[in-house]
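Throughout our pipeline, every protein is held as a single compact record rather than as scattered files. Such a record has a labelled line for the sequence and another for the backbone structure tokens. The remainder of this section carries one protein's record, kept here as part of the documentation:
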Amino acid sequence: MRLGWIHLAAAAFCFIISACAATGPKISADDEKKFKEALLAESKAWQKKQQERIEEVASRLLEATDTQSVIRFVFAASSEQTGARVNLDAANAWTDGGTVWVTRGMIRFLKNDDELAAVLGHEIAHALRGHMRYLWAQNILGMAVTVPAGIYGGQIGGEAAARMVQLATAKFDRDREREADLYGLMWVHRAGFNVDEGKEVFRRIAIEMPGSTERGFLSTHPTAPERFLALDKIAATLKAGQDPLKVFTPKPETEQQTTLEVKKAEEAAAEEDVAKRSSAER
């Protein structure tokens, strides 16, 4: 009797499963394949559009730098471009000095070209102000990291992928981040973008994506509040028609005065130390 109930329960279970499997419209394998191909085509078109958008904004910024520098810009939309270990859905951007990468996460996060200009301007400043040499000198990257140019159309190898992870997570020091913020926003303004909207992207990243302040685009030594306040002052200076380099760069006499004060303090400390030793010897 018990065995009969088991068979009956098993039959009922199979009936329920088969009924569930039959629920909903049936999609043929051919229709699925065609739609998949259509989606792939749309994806490629979208990626191309974002690449062109980045290049267009970047070209205006490079022109604003008044240099003849050539920098490559890459919309990082696929792990084939960066390796699987780089989180492309994070709001991030980085450079190796000759190329700037912008993740798909950053592009989705940015609201307009003014914000994109702020991000690109910051990375261009790192590239043009020689900040990569600092990373190499400090052995932060371990070697002169430059990802081969040939990877942009295909999948990168293991060594290049490892270098890409280093670049995407590398941190500059306080002074170089400040300098990148200053020059970047200057070029944003000079290129005709809205500096008010540009600087707000840094605030939104910290508020809406707090993880980015620990690892990624905002993972730097200057605290987030300090950077926002500094950018606000730079933007106000630019809108007032003033040159931030003149306003915020220490004047020679100020530097001399500071050096003199430090020297006097050191001499006073040395004299005090000598006096203490003499007293102890007595």
User: Anything to note?
Assistant: The first strand starts at residue 72 and ends at 76.
